[in-house]
């Protein structure tokens, strides 16, 4: 269980936001409390000195005091208004507004800091005393037992309402803190994955540029010495163009991906190593079926590694949640410009298996999106489906032939 650090606690005057979906409920509860207080009052306007107070004034003051709980997001104005209204029993004994005051006390306990909530609870001594005094005025020969029972009842009721509010407040704060920590952890996982991707692409581009330099240097040396044949120069230029086009695509994926320093993730496994993953899964007892359609194309190294990671994550998830009769289908569908990879796992369990609780899918989604693909993952009726679509052909071409024709 996480504990809220002292520096993350709310300041003394801070007010926690009331859940948006419960604001209407708050208004309904306050309106109901006003109706109860008006019903308890009953219209008796007799004052302590035997006079009469204007009934319209009493109704207006009661309505305005309750309305303060709705007009302001903070419960402090409403609590203060109802606290003062409770003192009206010292003038008109029949006026008791404990329903509204209990709502205000609950909101203070739930929405304010502990110190303010405790102060509100301590302030309840005054309304209890006023209620006890007004109650005694309606009964003759009031003894100490009556006063004790009347006061004890209200103390118990207020402590219960205040306690419920504090429990819910602590629960809300804990959930908010844990949600924020989860968001920060997810963001950190995404940043780490993007950093690993950027390092991988940096190595790929550096390797391609090294090849371009060597190819161009060799072609130039052959031309200078006069030993290079035409087809050799053409082959070298073709290799340079292919490497440059690949570098452009990888650089396009690299843009905007650099983050704070982290642990590098060496790249090397590609689509050629998928068969090894499948063999390992089968050796562990998992029934793996492979389906392939379309004509395979040459993939950029980062795309090939992403395919490897997709299959790896799908098989890993299947092995974690496998049972009797577990089965996995690995499907690759080649199209002229895209490659669709699906890993459908049937857990063999009586109920669908939940996905892994780690950040494998989070990082994998980021990797696929950065690579220019689409990513879908979720439970099915009997297992889990992982589906991605990746670009199989580069979209950035160097118009060498077109420029040559124009020249």
Main beta sheet strand tally, sense and closure = 5 strands, mixed
Q: Count of DSSP E strands?
A: 5
- Radius of gyration computed on alpha carbons: 37 Å
Q: What structural class do helix, strand and pairing data support?
A: alpha+beta
Mean pLDDT value: 72
Beta-strand percent range: 5-15%
Strand order of the largest sheet: 1-2-3-5-4
Which percent bin holds the helix content?
Answer: 55-70%
What's the SSE pattern? HHHHHHHHHEHEEHEEH
How does the overall form come out from the CA principal axes?
elongated
By oligomeric state, this entry counts as single chain
Give the CA-CA distance, first to last residue: 72 Å
User: Low-confidence parts lasting 5 or more residues at pLDDT below 50?
Assistant: 1-13, 258-266, 350-359, 395-407
Number of domains: 3
Number of helices: 12
What's the arrangement of secondary structure elements?
Elements: H1 23-41, H2 55-71, H3 76-86, H4 98-111, H5 114-123, H6 125-137, H7 144-225, H8 230-254, H9 274-283, E1 287-293, H10 301-320, E2 327-334, E3 338-346, H11 360-370, E4 374-379, E5 383-391, H12 400-406
Parallel strand pairs: 1-2
Antiparallel strand pairs: 2-3, 3-5, 4-5
GO molecular function, one term: phosphorelay sensor kinase activity
Keywords: ATP-binding, Kinase, Membrane, Nucleotide-binding, Phosphoprotein, Transferase, Transmembrane, Transmembrane helix, Two-component regulatory system
Enzyme class: transferase
């Amino acid at each position: 269980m996480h504990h809220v650090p002292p520096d993350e606690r709310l300041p003394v005057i801070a007010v926690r936001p009331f859940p948006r979906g419960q604001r209407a409920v708050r208004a309904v509860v306050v309106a109901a409390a006003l109706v109860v207080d008006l019903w308890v009052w009953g219209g008796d306007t007799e004052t302590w000195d035997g006079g009469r107070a204007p009934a319209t004034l009493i109704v207006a003051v009661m309505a305005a005091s309750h309305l303060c709980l709705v007009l302001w997001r903070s419960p402090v104005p409403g609590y203060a208004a109802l606290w003062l209204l409770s003192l009206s029993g010292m003038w008109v004994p029949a006026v008791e507004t404990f329903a509204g005051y209990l709502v205000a006390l609950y909101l203070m306990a739930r929405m304010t800091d502990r110190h303010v909530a405790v102060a509100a609870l301590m302030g309840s001594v005054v309304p209890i005393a006023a209620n006890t005094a007004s109650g005694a005025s309606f009964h003759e020969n009031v003894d100490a037992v009556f006063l004790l029972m009347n006061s004890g009842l209200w103390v118990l009721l207020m402590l219960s309402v205040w306690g419920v509010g504090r429990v819910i407040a602590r629960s809300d704060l804990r959930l908010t803190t844990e949600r924020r920590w989860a968001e920060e952890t997810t963001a950190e996982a995404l940043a780490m994955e993007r950093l690993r991707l950027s390092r991988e692409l940096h190595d790929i581009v550096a390797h391609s540029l090294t090849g371009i330099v060597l190819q161009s240097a060799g072609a130039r040396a052959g031309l200078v010495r006069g030993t290079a044949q035409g087809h050799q120069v053409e082959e070298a230029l073709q290799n340079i163009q292919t490497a440059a086009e690949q570098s452009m695509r990888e650089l396009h994926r690299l843009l905007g991906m650099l983050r704070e320093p982290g642990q590098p993730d060496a790249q090397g496994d590609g689509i050629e190593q998928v068969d090894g993953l499948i063999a390992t899964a089968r050796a562990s007892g998992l029934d793996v079926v492979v389906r392939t359609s379309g004509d395979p194309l040459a993939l950029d190294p980062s795309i090939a590694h992403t395919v490897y990671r997709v299959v790896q994550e799908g098989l890993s998830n299947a092995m974690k949640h496998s049972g009797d009769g577990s089965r996995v289908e690995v499907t690759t569908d080649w199209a002229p410009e895209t490659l669709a990879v699906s890993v459908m796992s049937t857990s063999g369990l009586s109920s669908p298996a939940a996905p892994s609780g780690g950040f494998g899918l989070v990082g994998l989604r980021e990797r696929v999106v950065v690579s220019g693909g689409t990513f879908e993952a979720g439970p099915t009726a009997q297992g889990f489906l992982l589906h991605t679509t990746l670009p199989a052909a580069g979209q950035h071409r160097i118009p060498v032939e077109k420029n040559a024709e124009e020249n």
